[in-house]
Amino acid sequence: MNRKGGMTMIRYVTAQQVEIDIHEMKREQAKKYLERFLSSANGNVREVTVIHGFSGGTVLRDMVQKGLKHHRIKAKLRSFNPGITILELN
């Protein structure tokens, strides 16, 4: 899954931790992207750091924290960084 121009949006920090940058996406595009990732992610992945940004408004943050639903999501944690939400996975 790559962004136009070849920039990778997904970065595996470890086998269990992943970072996904969605901050330049539209709400529905980002939601579908995250749902697709969660459905296809290896069962070893236990934590996803979602970089949604904060200076451009709250649309993506609210979508991740309130609107994103998936059976793998165990918890949604707010970070000290307002541009990040951490998803704990089953």
UniProtKB/TrEMBL annotation:
InterPro entries: Smr_dom, Smr_dom_sf. Coiled coil: none annotated. It holds the Pfam family Smr. Residues 20-79 form the Smr domain. Gene3D superfamilies: 3.30.1370.110. This is Smr domain protein. It comes from [Clostridium] methylpentosum DSM 5476.
